[in-house]
Amino acid sequence: MYKYLKYLKKYTIKKNLDMIKMTMDYAIITQNLTKDFGNVIAVKNLNLKILYGKTYGILGPNGAGKTTTVRMLNSIISPTSGTAQVAGYDIITQSKEVKMNCGFLPESPGLYQKLTAVEFLEFIGELYYLPKEVISSRIDELLELFDLEDRENDLLEGYSRGMKQKVCLCAALIQDPKIIFLDEPTSNLDPVAAKMVKDLISDLAKKADKTIFICTHLLDAAEDLCDMIGIIDKGVLKVEGTPRDIINSVNAEDLEDAYLKIMGTTKIEDLLAWREETPNNNEISKKKKKKRKDKK
Ligand SMILES: Nc1ncnc2c1ncn2[C@@H]1O[C@H](COP(=O)(O)OP(=O)(O)OP(=O)(O)O)[C@@H](O)[C@H]1O
Ligand SMILES: [Mg+2]
After folding, report:
1. pLDDT score of 278 more than 60
2. Is the pLDDT of residue 60 over 60?
3. Cβ of 98: how many Cβ atoms within 10 Å?
């Protein structure tokens, strides 16, 4: 009996150590992560394991659940069920630690319009308890990188959309986070700025060894940047793998071709069917119009 208890203790300790080691290797782990908004299931039983230092791209059509996933992973909204650990912290019970270790570029960031870029970034730096001199030198570096030094003392209300997006990227990077979440980082940016952001993401991943979780519709950028890709549709992870694996799995030419094959181009053909002016289609269209009229 004693021998058995000793074995059990040893086994339990080993299992716990294995669990801790596994958690330490992964920047993000989700377990059956689910979010409902009333009747809408935005994310359903999502299971992800993302190693530190990797760039993970999440792709999917509008309304697939990408933003909802990153909002949960940044402890901004709570899951309906399931859980996740980010940087080793539980997104529900350790939300402060999660936020301290992550940088987040939201899809529609809110900015304090009556602050200048420098004032806004100082404010964000202070939220992370960074020393004043660190904040000041990071702001200088970031504003130079994003070509905003000339306008740094202008109020944000006078910035263009792309300039605001750049300031938000600076805010996501100011505390030099371990894990960076980027929700559509190149939206609103001109081609030169978009290319710069793409290069920056690549540098952060390769040279600074950051973990990056990126939501994007830009499939060529995802193919170049991401070590792993997850394709999500109606809240469910449909496919996961390296870009090459996904391309090969459907005999596609590139990731865009693979994505269209996986998501079904037939959907697009259906949507465009109205263009074909065949008598049959006209009949269907007339019937649909009549039905709508009758409803009114
Ligand atoms: N606060 C909310 N209240 C109600 N429904 C919501 C809310 N946020 C998201 N949803 C719903 O959850 C689903 C997933 O939305 P989400 O914003 O995560 O999609 P997405 O993949 O980021 O889409 P997009 O590519 O358009 O940004 C959608 O059906 C959306 O309407
Ligand atoms: Mg979104």
Report:
1. no
2. yes
3. 23
The region that residue 200 occupies, defined by phi over 0 for left and psi between -120 and 50 for alpha, beta otherwise, is alpha
Q: Does the beta carbon of 65 lie inside 6 Å of ligand 1?
A: yes
| pLDDT band with cut points at 50, 70 and 90 for residue 283 | low
Ligand 1 atom closest to Cα of 35?
12
Question: Cα of 288 to ligand 2 centre, how many Å?
Answer: 32
Does any domain span residue 212?
yes
State both tokens at 194. 């978009």
In a domain, residue 167? The reply is yes
List the domain range (segments joined by +) for residue 81: 2-241
Please report which helix (H) or strand (E) contains residue 257, including its range: helix 255-263
Q: Is residue 68 part of a domain?
A: yes
Domain contains 26: yes
In this predicted structure, the answer to whether residue 110 has a pLDDT above a threshold of 90 is: no
CATH assignment of the domain containing 13: 3.40.50.300
- Report which of residues 270 and 185 the model is more confident about: 185
Tens digit of pLDDT for each residue in 199-244?
Answer: 888 888 888 889 999 999 999 999 999 999 999 999 999 999 999 9
The answer to whether the beta carbons of residues 211 and 232 sit under 8 Å apart is no
Find the 62 Cα to ligand 2 centroid distance in Å: 7
Residue 272 exposure: Cα atoms within 13 Å on the Cβ side? 5
For the chain, how many structural domains are there in total? 1
User: What is the C-alpha separation between 141 and 174, in angstroms, rounded?
Assistant: 10
Beta bridge partners of 215: 58, 183
Strand partners, 87: none
Q: What's the CA gap between 233 and 42, in Å, rounded?
A: 9
Tokens found for residue 161: 């959309």
